[in-house]
Every structure is written in C-alpha cells, then in structure tokens.
Amino acid sequence: MKYINSILFFFIIISFTACSSKKEISLNSQINSISLDKNIAIANVPKTVKSPISIGLGLGGYVSKHVGINVGTSVRPDIKNSDALNLKRGIEKFNINLEELVFRGFSRAINEDKFYKNKFVPFGANHTIHLFVSKYEMDDSFISSTAYAKLYIELKVLDQNDNVLYTNYEVNDSIDSSFSQAQIYSKKQYLEKALNDAILNTSKKLIKEMKSK
After folding, report:
1. Integer Cα distance of 136 and 191 in angstroms
2. Cα 132 to the chain's mean position, in Å?
3. What value does the mean pLDDT take over residues 185-206?
4. For residue range 147-156, what is the model confidence (pLDDT) as tens digits?
5. Which of 3, 134, 141, 211 gives the lowest tally of CB atoms within 10 Å of its CB?
6. pLDDT of 40 strictly over 80
7. 122 and 33 in contact (C-beta within 8 Å)?
8. Residues 180-195, mean pLDDT to the nearest whole number
9. What is the pTM assigned to this prediction?
10. Residue 184: CB atoms within 10 Å
11. Which 3 state secondary structure label does DSSP give 97?
12. Does position 15 have pLDDT exceeding 70, yes or no?
C-alpha cells in the first residue's frame, strides 16, 4: 500500500510540474507579420431600437386579452433609430464608401504604431485582421450644440488556418467638433471628416488593446 501511495504521489508531482511549466503563448509573440482584410463588414441599420428610458406602469391591467401588466411593471418601448438612419442617409447621399474609409483609417493607425508598423504588410502575412462595423450613429455633444460620429468596431485576428486567436470591440471616445449635425450633413467633406475622426480614434483604441496581448 505504501508503495502504491508513493507511485500516486510521484505522478501527481509530475502532473503539477508539467502544468506549471506550460505557459500561455501571447498573441503578439506569434505574429511575425499581419495584414488587414479588405472586406470590411458593415452591419445594417435597424429602423427602430429600444428606448434607453424605461416607462414605469403603476396600475395593473391588460394590454391585450392574454398579456397582463402588474403594479410596478416597466417597459422599454421601441423608438425610431433616427441618429443612425440619418447618418446612413448622409453616407448614401454623398456616395461615401464607408468600408474604404475604415480600411484606410485602420491602415493609417497601424502604420503609425511603432510596434506594428514593421509587421504590417499588404498581403502574405501569417495573421490577418478582420473588422466589422456593428453599429454607427451621429451623437450630439452634452455641453454644446455640436455633433460627432460614433463607430462601434469589432476586431478579430485570424491565423493562417482561419482560427480566431483574438477578438475585441471598441467605440470611439467623444470627439471635439465645431459642427452641428445639420452642418455635417450639408457637405461631403464635413461628413467624411466626422467619419474619419471616429474611425481613427476607434482604430487606435483597438490597436492599443491588441498590443497588450
């Protein structure tokens, strides 16, 4: 029995030693070269979204024959997705290629990054970045009448076998602007500037996070 316990103890020690010696390989230690896929996915803009404000219903009752509402129930009604729909119409009005703007903006940001600029190549890389614009809208400043574009971008890093090694999701910070929404939509150059500022800001945030992995 003592002999069996010794053997079991030996295998337990070996097992723990093997596990402790295994170190997770960081993302950036695997990247010799990296490129950006030109096919930037852009999500469709929904016509309605859930209201950010819940409405409390203080009385019990029925909204239909089968759906009851009790005291204290709150609901979030659907509202028109105006900020995003207006931006979509502005992009279409001026025939702006949002996919191209995102590709150029992210490429600029990564080419300016000291860590990645020598790893970033147009093709033939051992890792590839894929971008997905999951949401975009125009936002008004809380402290002034000016507005700025907001882009929500998801990033994925794939290896040569199309395995997803890393994913992240960011939205740009508020951006100083001297234009109102009406002014931004009045000229193509103003709208493109608003979009480019948002793209560059979001891209830099994505790259900063990716560098830490």
Report:
1. 13
2. 7
3. 97
4. 999 999 999 9
5. 3
6. yes
7. no
8. 97
9. 0.80
10. 24
11. coil
12. no
